[in-house]
Amino acid sequence: MPRDTIVLLGVNHKTTPLAVREKLALTGGYEEPLAALGRLDAIREYYLLSTCNRVEVLFTCRDVREARRQVLDLLFAGSASREEMRNYIYQYEDQEAINHLFLVASSLDSMIVGEAQILGQLKDAFRHASSLKTSGLVLNKLLHKSFSVAKRVRTETRIGANAVSISYAAVELGRKIFGNLDDKRVLLVGAGEMAELAAEHLVGQGVSEVVVANRTLERAVRLARRFDGRAVGLDELVEQLKYVDIIISSTGASDLILWKKDVQSVMRERRNQPLFFIDIAVPRDLDPEINELDNVYLYDIDDLKHVVEMNKSERDREAVKARRIVEEETLKFTQWLENIELTPTIIELRRMADEICRKELAKTLGRLDNLSARERKSIEKMAAAITSRMLHHPLRYLKSDNPCADRRDKVNTVRTLFCLDNGNGNGEKQ
Amino acid sequence: MSFLLFQISFAGYFLAMAAYLVFFISQKKPVRRIARMIFFGAAICHTLNIIARYVEAGHTPITSQHEAISFFAWAVAWSYLSFRWRYTVKNFGTFVSMMVFVLMLFSSLASRQIMPLVPALQSWWLPVHASISLVADGFLALACIGSIMYLLQEREIKKKRFGLFYSRLPSLDSLDKLNQHCLSVGFPLLTLGIITGSLWAKQAWGSYWHWDPKETWSLITWFLYAAVVHQRFTVGWRGRRVAVLTIIAFVAVLFTLWGVTFLLKGVHTYAT
């Protein structure tokens, strides 16, 4: 009686282009697909994860090929061709599946390695699965384990500590300067894509207002509307410096648009509140000497890239540590799985021995009637002792941690020797 | 008895500093918890030491060099602890524990002999004036440490070269706020210390102000801090300039405490 196989099928940002991922994403929430999966007979426990970077389904089953066919047909048949599925969907089993899940949970498989969002998404997905009772003993244990692995990775490595993209770097610098970004205002000068991205990040971190200044007011208005902010003309730039804290500049201007003396003139009125300039335009928009002013910080695109590079190399070092933790936890979990695999065999073996012992005792004691209670007791004891002595070595063999012998082989050997499968043990795998 | 307690707290501060430094480099949270506990324990032993010394000497133990510096260290430690209770500043403990340890080191090098109190000091003004002044100095020391941390952090952000401090020190804003908080407690206490001193002088020597070196220097110190507080309040000075001025003012505090005693003689020179 072998255990079910754990299978993980999915697509992510590494293997699959966005155009395909879009089609596969489960946009309608988890309830419906989970309920639909419940109607399949090939899978036992299952759970679904769908984020903007990945769609993954994890399940346990007996017959992997059949289960794969059923699950894929159900989830993706309407949205992708067989060809696409074959090309893009990855499939992991058992130890590999466990390892992959742990990597995902610890954010090692994310687009931005170390970001914290994925764990929340994972927990949310699991909440849906467990409230619909679609996950059982194995998946519950596995997912809970993945949360604690993620936590361990987070506390024992510094993987989450570093910004790895330009806009992350800008946000992080902003935090080091202002502490809290909640009541800060951002001024976007020029409506470029990069500036927009950085602003999006800052808004995600809770900045209170976004102001957009652009040469053509029309574009400024359009962008401002996206962030619920207001638009101003480019000639009001210096005036606006009195009210904002973070300035992201990305105009296409060929000359500098803001000079040191402009900034100096507003500092008194700002009561020296810090100003943080981010110049991501090439050629540069802002006078590099602005950085010399007290309480004013200016970073251009190269400075930010430098921060990102520095963080990346540290992050890569941390990722190595994190992967080691994941490996370690994967092994531990596999061991747990093997142990639950072992348990039924041990129980059956004991039960069989007890059965034989009981039968033989009944036979023998039935023939000897003039025995005292004490003598009966002794005989019963002896019989029990013999069976447990006989079982001692087989059990020890099962439980031993000999790395050379595969646990499944050992289970098979013991089951065959003791005829535990009543002669029909050939339905087993391996 | 009091000396034993002194030694225990001295060793405690040393261990706390070592643990804090390990935490500072490694950023392992359990180490910080140990460091905090040791520091807290040492501060309690230190308090007991001062009480024991009070009992042994029969007067407030704040008159000799040893006692005054030890009391100063005690004030720094407890103003830090009182502070932590309200809000935390990342890795502040590391710097504070170093300062406390250095002060204790100086204190342990000075003579521990208990000197009988000269008649001029036999007054209840002694504990009031001296302890208020030293507690004020404790908060001013914290402000100075905060300013040093500010300058370290500001330098890395400004120069765009991120080394040891960038990730370990808190944000510039919180260091600037730290400076403001410490000054807003330290400066009024310093003022109060000078006022009580002047009242005592009137009682002991007959006039409020003598222009003896210590008085002069504490006035200079007061003016320096007044300038910081004033500039901050009116024109919104902050950041680097305030940090530099705070450090300079604290150097003046140290000079008032020791420089005056050793370099310039005056009525404040007692037990030597």
Low-confidence blocks of residues of chain A: 423-430
Please give the alpha-carbon distance between the first and last residues of chain A.
Answer: 12 Å
Q: If interface size is counted as residues with C-beta under 8 Å from the partner's C-beta, which chains form the largest one?
A: A-B, 25 and 22 residues
Mean pLDDT of chain A: 84
Query: What is the count of β-strands of chain A?
Result: 10
Q: Which runs of chain B of at least 5 residues are low in confidence (pLDDT < 50)? A: none
Instruction: Provide mean pLDDT of chain B, rounded.
Output: 87
* CATH uppermost class of the largest domain in chain A: Alpha Beta
CATH superfamily of the largest domain in chain A: Glutamyl-tRNA reductase, N-terminal domain
CATH topology type of the largest domain in chain A = Beta Polymerase, domain 2
Enumerate how many helices of chain B there are, as a single number.
8
What's the helix count of chain A? Answer: 15
Entry summary:
The complex is a heterodimer of chains A (430) and B (272). Chain A is of the alpha/beta class.
Describe how the helices and strands are arranged.
The complex is a heterodimer of chains A (430) and B (272).
Chain A: E1 5-12, H1 18-24, H2 31-38, E2 43-50, E3 54-61, H3 64-76, H4 82-88, E4 90-93, H5 94-105, H6 117-131, H7 137-156, H8 166-178, E5 185-189, H9 193-204, E6 209-214, H10 217-226, E7 230-233, H11 237-240, E8 246-249, H12 260-267, E9 275-279, E10 296-300, H13 301-367, H14 373-399, H15 407-417
Parallel strand pairs in A: 5-6, 5-8, 6-7, 8-9, 9-10
Antiparallel strand pairs in A: 1-3, 1-4, 2-3
Helix pairs in contact in A: 5-7, 5-13, 6-7, 7-13, 8-9, 13-14, 13-15
Chain B: H1 2-26, H2 29-57, H3 65-86, H4 92-109, H5 125-159, H6 172-205, H7 213-234, H8 240-263
Helix pairs in contact in B: 1-2, 1-4, 2-3, 3-4, 3-5, 4-5, 5-6, 5-8, 6-7, 7-8
